[in-house]
Amino acid sequence: MSAPTDAPETLYQALFTGLWDDAALFPPGNAPMTEAVPAHRLYRTEWFAPFVRNFLVGTAHVPDLLALADPDAPLRIVLVAPGGPATVGPAVRTILNTPGLFLEGIEVAGDGEIGKAVAALHEHLPEMTAGYVEVLKGAGLDADLDNLAGTYGRPKFRTGGTAAHAFPDEAELAAFVYACRIRELPFKVTAGLHNAVRHTDPTTGFEHHGYLNLLLATHHAVAGAEPDALADVLALRDSAELTRMAHDLTLTERTRLRGYLTSYGTCSVAEPLQDALTLGLLGEPPRHRD
Asked: What's 3's DSSP letter?
């Protein structure tokens, strides 16, 4: 395939706009609210602001957030409810009643009770906001996705964590991407995607997926590839090959794959951004002097 002829800025925007949800409050980052909120507000003033989507706030974090709410510096909030559907309502009402906070979406743990999670979204999700239900890898995945189809809920899948078992292998992640594609379900993922390319963490020994691998696997799924082929892309560790594959994506291909992979949560925006710059997937615009 020949390299795309569209302007680089257009191609950057198609692949990266809204890709990163700011999950600084969550493990392993665990940033205090008094640091995470000012940092997120700073992101919104930087050249890479279009690539940072929303600020993720757990239901337990909401009381600490209220003191930092500022109508002059509004925050776009996605509420994360790891405790399940019962915790959603009170937190939603608090956010909606606080000037300076705008609820952009809700993410709720399914915990094998997809019906209850979906019911919570239908009850509490405001218009024009997105709802996600975390589904688990394994034998129940297809049934969970079937139960989400036709509801307000989109699937969310965990790609890492603070223990080895939280990381799905290539086949498990490929199965999720493929299953979402054949059901035409947009999805998001969370955790572990600090870097562009698949690698083994030298400190923990955990096998981390690369967000570039995932973007490309999603592209192949949209193009009709089977799960084994997606797993092969997820397993690649050659940054030069992955970068070449990404550069070869047309504007249409980039747009179509992002119609499925809507965003992913990362506790560090700086790490994935730096990888994108290093690999030439993004280019920082020149700074103009006054």
From this structure: P
Strands 20-22 and 52-58: parallel
CA contacts within 13 A on the Cβ side of 61: 25
Secondary-structure breakdown of the chain: helix, strand, coil percentages, each rounded to the nearest 5: 45, 20, 40
The residue among 87 and 181 whose pLDDT is bigger is: 181
Say which residues have a Cβ less than 8 Å from residue 252's Cβ, sequence separation at least 6: none
In the predicted structure, residue 159 carries a pLDDT above the cut 50: yes
pLDDT of residue 4: 58
Given a cut of 80, whether residue 285 has pLDDT beyond it is no
DSSP state of 210: P
Question: What pTM value is reported for the model?
Answer: 0.93
- CA dihedral in degrees (248, 254, 260, 263; nearest 10)? 100
